[in-house]
Amino acid sequence: MSSWIRACSLDDIEQEGARRFDHGGRTYAVFRSPDDEVFCTDGLCTHEAIHLAEGLVMDYEVECPKHAGAFDYRTGAAKRLPPCINLRTYPAKVEAGSVLVAISQ
């Protein structure tokens, strides 16, 4: 079962930016797209467990800050090596200025 958890305020994330979100002993990354949609993925690169919220976000991709691998944060798809394992994604939405993420319990 999933429940909606408040990750942050929408204003906490720049357009084409990311923010780290920790919950239940796990790390997530919340992204704000160029058209102000929000997305959520696992927060660590599948290659070497580096925090993706610290990476470069451009258009709909996030670049890992360690080895420059890239993911499409909308789908979690690994787009550029070295990562070859996709990220898990989670439903995200904005309500009353807050970013909410549906995390399985």
TrEMBL record:
InterPro entries: MocE_2FeS, Rieske_2Fe-2S, Rieske_2Fe-2S_sf
Residues annotated as signal peptide: none
Gene Ontology MF annotations: 2 iron, 2 sulfur cluster binding; metal ion binding
Domain Rieske: 5-101
Keywords noted in UniProt: 2Fe-2S, Iron, Iron-sulfur, Metal-binding
Superkingdom of the organism of origin: Bacteria
Name of protein: MocE-like protein
Pfam families the record matches: Rieske
